[in-house]
Amino acid sequence: MARILGLDIDTHAVRAVLVRSSFGRVEPLRYLEAPIVVGEEPAPPAPPDPAPGPQGGPGVPPATPDAPPAGAFGAPEGSGTAPGFGATQDFGTPAQGPETPGGPATPLAGEQPLGPMGGPPPPPPEAQRAPRLDLEGAGLADALEPEEAPQSEPDGEPTEAPVDDLTPEERARRRAIEAIVAQISPPPDQVVAGLDGKEASLRILELPAGVAKKAGKLAEVLPFQLDDLVPFDIEETVVDHQVIGSDGPTVRVLATAVPKTTVAHRLRELKAVGVDPLMLPVGAAALDGLAPLTPTLAEGGPFLIVEVEETNTELCILEDGICTYARSMAMGEEELVDPRKKLQVIGAFKRSLGAYRASGGRPIERAFLCGDGVRQAGSLGPFLSENVLDGVPLESLPMPEAEGASEFDRPRFARAAGLAGHAVIKGKRIDLRKGEFAKRRSMGLLRTHGRMLAICAAAIFLSFVFATWARWSVLGDEQEELRDRLAAVTEELFDEETRSAEQARELLEGGTNVIDPLPTMTAFDVLDAVTKAIPPEITHDTRRLDIEIDDIAREGRFELQGTVASIAERDTIVAKLEEHECFTEVDPGPTSPGPGNEGLNYRLEVQIQCPNDEPLTPDDERGGRRRGRS
């Protein structure tokens, strides 16, 4: 479970949406807003009186070299520095210090200013004042490089610029961000900030599909494709993209290019109040992060989202929760409702939507209004629906309920909600935190949630142990049941009970001392032996074959009577029978002439006793019986 803050910094207000993400579900917790008011700044400290007052009387002693000026960057705690303006604060933890109605506290007359913990004032360190930032360089590394020795924070990064180096607008914006940050405790796990679409160039490009299949190839090709399309040097920009569709041999991408100085300025501005954003989406492309919070936008489309702010209007078209078209128009809330600019507004919208349709886009199914423009929904909705959207009604964007905003005001937080949703949506999205601006990986998140992770790991381990024990117990019961069945089967088949699979296999393969109850020579074996003993060239008529075998004594006899052509053929049969190892004694017996004095009748008696057959004992008997005549 993670708490994510979406931070939308506009020209006149800073809006934020705090959400909670758990297993793919996103739930808004709070809507926050702070106005950006230029000119409302803390009063500067009163200049010291050049002549000290009389002893014990009123007056302010002149500044001494040992005391840094109140309100200066890096002044000690309690010196009156406005929270967040003189030093970098932790997220949501503004500095505390005594103040007077007219400004920071000053020492009483005749008192010597004290240093921290009541000790002597520290010597004025040269590094307490941060270097001036030069944002005209090529990137963050150049922008944050001072002319002299840099002052570094514990993490090794240069400190932000002192308040004196900021414009009134920047100071007002910083105060608004600090006001938002101070309201969130404990700090969120992740922060996602963004840039306005007017500070970037968004383009839809069609590229060969083979380029998209190669990892990293799109990132290499895009700068060359955008070089002639953007109004600034492509070498000094951050370029990123997201795939929005494919059509056979081509792939369509939404690409953006933003000057590096713009990205560096926004990151520096956030870092000054202790915010290190996870991602930095841009313009209307950030609105596809609304899909996890607004189920209406997650599937189907195309849906048009019109975000109207004070100085600009963002258009975003979503299809199946993905931004497939984005454009920023330099006309704000006042221009859109100004009757004198009616034709100009209609033309701008029709050109934008015409470009979308010309690129293969489908007709708009639904249209939603958000941003400050919801205050003009009564007039702006019917106007755009009739003149631009071909009758499609322009509805207020439905936003989930949470603390801090009414149902009417919630659509004004659409951009901030979309930024928060960007942290949980799957797939590649536009993010300007790449290259030299990539977020440094740290163990901060693990440290923050170390205890929770340890508890979860312990619960998982215990669950694994219990599941293993339960499975082992079930297998043990099954094994015992199978052993009982094996013992019963071996007792029935082999007259020997065994619960071992190895011993059962030996019994099955005959590798035991169990005596086979059947003799080696059965009646069928005798018949087979007699048949083989008569050569094929001898014509033999069998008149009688009587076989007797005792299964218990494992011995027997047979009598053969037949007719052959001569006495020599009978002797041949006798000789063949005597060769068999189980025929122990062959008695030729008498002969007589055959019928009609043709051939010779003979009779043989043969004793059967195979070498390895031993008589069965009573324990070995298994249904022994004397087989009948055959």
Give an overview in words.
The chain has 630 residues and is α+β, with helices and mostly antiparallel strands. Among the domains are: 295-398, Nucleotidyltransferase, domain 5 (2-Layer Sandwich); 452-508; 523-608, Alpha-Beta Plaits. It is built from 15 helices and 19 strands. It has a five-stranded mixed β-sheet with strand order 12-11-10-13-14, with helices on one face. A hairpin with a 4-residue loop joins strand 10 and strand 11 (313-319). The longest helix is centred in the C-terminal third of the chain and has 45 residues, at 450-494.
What are the defining features of this structure?
630 residues, alpha+beta, Nucleotidyltransferase, domain 5, Alpha-Beta Plaits, 5-stranded mixed β-sheet, 5-stranded antiparallel β-sheet, 27% helix, disordered C terminus
Helicity, in percent? 25-40%
Q: Rg, please?
A: 49 Å
**Amino- and carboxy-terminal Cα gap:** 88 Å
Would you identify the regions where 5 or more consecutive residues have pLDDT less than 50?
Answer: 48-159, 622-630
Instruction: Provide the β-strand percentage band.
Output: 15-25%
Please tally the β strands and state the result.
19
Q: Give the averaged pLDDT, no decimals.
A: 76
Anisotropy-based shape: elongated
Structure in a nutshell:
This protein is α+β, with helices and mostly antiparallel strands. Helices cover 27% and strands 21% of the residues. The chain has helices spanning 140-143, 168-182, 209-213, 217-226, 260-271, 295-298, 333-337, 342-358, 377-387, 414-421, 444-448, 450-494, 501-508, 523-533, 567-578, and strands spanning 2-9, 13-22, 25-35, 99-100, 103-104, 190-193, 201-208, 237-247, 250-259, 303-308, 313-319, 322-329, 366-371, 394-396, 541-550, 555-564, 583-587, 591-593, 600-608.
